[in-house]
Design goal:
The chain is mainly beta. Helix content is 8%, strand content 21%. The strands form 5 sheets. A 14-stranded mixed sheet has the order 4-5-7-9-11-12-14-16-17-18-19-20-22-24, with no helix packed on it. A 4-stranded mixed sheet has the order 3-2-1-6, with no helix packed on it. It has a 3-stranded parallel sheet with strand order 21-23-25, with no helix packed on it.
């Protein structure tokens, strides 16, 4: 049965038996979240001024041609957590000159429709948690205003492949999130596209010695935020030898959580150049002892504010190891096996706001 969505006088309803919510402060917003909709309702002409349309957590299977034709001022469209398997080539006719945020995460997309190329004003695109097998040149290239791209957890196939020019034309790209079971070959793809990246999040990906030697991050001079979560990093001799010297001079946030790291790996391969670091997350690793003479934290500079060592195997911690971290505010040692916390010199621990 066809449904019609109207927003006249803010009396927002989907007939025959469900209701949406409408707000109209400065930016009209329509929320149809979790209503068990199997299809996108007909969007009437009085929806022209709607700024945000939320259709999350329904049972929508497809986005047909001209679905949003009447929503010509739409800026944000959330279609996450549905069962969408495909997009029409003309799905976004109407808001193609206005749409800035598109969330298609947690669906069942296996290919990317060329309809995305019409979204010339798009700034945020979330395609995470789908079944994508490849990112081709024609899929998302030439989106000149694209700032943030999520491609994480597209693990339906053994390897998410990228065309060498997949990100060409995305000149404004600053934030990239992805997870791929094997990272082999990514350097070829990203070499010309990572120069302006500031945020890079890689999760659930195996970084083997060969991939490390490819110096994946050598072309990221603007990087300030890096996450390598569940990437199979360990303190083996082979991995430490293969790990590249990243171009991390401007890095402010580093997360290496949920790996198998010890401080010797961190000390030798990661922390030496991080003079601007403010947050360090080493939670859920295999660190056992933090000795007073460790050099892992000594070259991070005075900007360090927060360290998380949560859920390691720490039994002994000598606070002298943090003697240069004069502005440290948070030290998270929860869920360890701490038996001895050694304080050799009483220095400005009053600056700590939280333990």
């Amino acid at each position: 049965m066809a449904c019609a969505l109207t927003c006249a006088n803010l009396e927002c309803s989907i007939k025959p038996d469900t209701r949406c919510q409408c707000w109209q402060p400065d930016r009209p917003q329509v929320v149809c979240r979790g209503l068990h909709l199997s299809a996108i309702p007909t969007l009437d002409s009085d929806m022209a001024e709607v700024h945000t349309l939320i259709l999350s957590r329904n049972q929508i299977k497809e986005v047909g041609e001209n679905t949003f034709l009447n929503v010509t001022s739409l800026r944000r469209l959330l279609l996450d957590h549905n069962n969408i398997t495909e997009l029409s080539a003309f799905s976004f006719n109407g808001p193609h000159n206005s749409l800035e945020v598109l969330d298609m995460s947690h669906n069942m997309l296996s290919i990317i429709s060329i309809s995305l190329l019409s979204l010339r004003r798009l700034r945020v695109l979330n395609l995470g948690h789908n079944h994508l097998e490849s990112i081709r040149y024609a899929d998302i290239s030439n989106l000149p205003r694209l700032h943030t791209l999520f491609l994480d957890n597209n693990d339906h196939s053994p390897m998410l492949s990228f065309d060498r020019r997949a990100l060409d034309g995305c000149s404004s790209l600053r934030s990239l999130s992805l997870s791929i079971k094997q990272l082999s070959g990514l350097t070829r793809v990203y070499t010309n596209n990572l120069q302006s990246i500031t945020h890079l999040m890689i999760t659930d990906s195996y970084i083997g010695r060969t991939d490390l030697r490819s110096n994946l991050l050598l072309n990221t001079p603007s990087l300030t935020h890096l996450e390598l979560t569940r990437c199979g990093l360990s303190s083996s001799v082979n991995q430490m030898e293969g790990f590249p010297s990243f171009n991390l001079a401007n890095l402010e946030y580093l997360s290496l959580s949920e790996n198998s790291l010890r401080l010797n790996w961190v000390e030798q391969r990661v922390l030496a150049p991080l003079e601007h670091l403010t947050v360090l997350d080493l939670s859920f690793n295999t660190i056992k002892v933090v000795q007073g003479d460790t050099k892992a934290f000594t070259k991070m500079g005075a900007n360090l504010r927060e360290i998380s060592l949560k859920s390691n195997r720490i039994t002994e911690f000598n606070l002298k190891a943090l003697s240069t971290a004069r502005n440290l505010e948070v030290l998270d040692l929860r869920m360890n096996k701490l038996q001895d916390l050694q304080l050799e010199n009483r220095w400005e621990w009053d600056s700590f706001h939280e333990w």
